[in-house]
Amino acid sequence: MLLEMASLFNRNGAVMAVELEEQIKEPSDYPDVVEFVEPVKIEGTLKNENEIFVLEAKAGTEVMLRCDRCLAPVRKELCFEIKERFAHAGRENEETETFSGDQIDLADFVKRGIIGALPMKVICREGCKGLCPVCGKDLNEGDCDCDTTYIDPRFESLRALFNDDEEV
Prior knowledge:
This protein is mainly beta. The chain has helices at about 105-115, 160; strands at about 1-5, 15-20, 35, 40-50, 50-65, 75-90, 95-100, 105. The strands form 2 sheets. Strands 2, 3, 4, 5, 6 and 7 form a 6-stranded mixed sheet that branches. A two-stranded antiparallel ribbon has the order 1-8. Strand 4 and strand 5 (about 50-65) form a beta hairpin.
């Protein structure tokens, strides 16, 4: 996503409206994203403050994720903000990002915003039962006949702590 900003050069205090939209076709750089359903939209302003360019924008998109319990597709809206300060290469300091030419590439800032906006856990619905750990059947569609009472032998000695009729 390239932001054209040549109109702000040498115009201290000038403000430019920012409206960008781009469809991300390849979701492989984004963890857990199956597909981008909507394009990424950015709206905000870019201001020249003594040749330091301040971008303040809101951005958003819709993505398709997988339920963490049953792997069903889940559509989620992601919203994030981009607040960055840019300076030409050679004028940078620790508080600014650098650019050269008359364009700023926002791809890394958009990627960081999307990854930061991804939910830690995605559930398709409140009562999702998930998948059977033995056969993999979707338990939302019905129960299976698998025996799921397996106890890892490493934890067998802990079972005595939960038996009421045994003395520990």
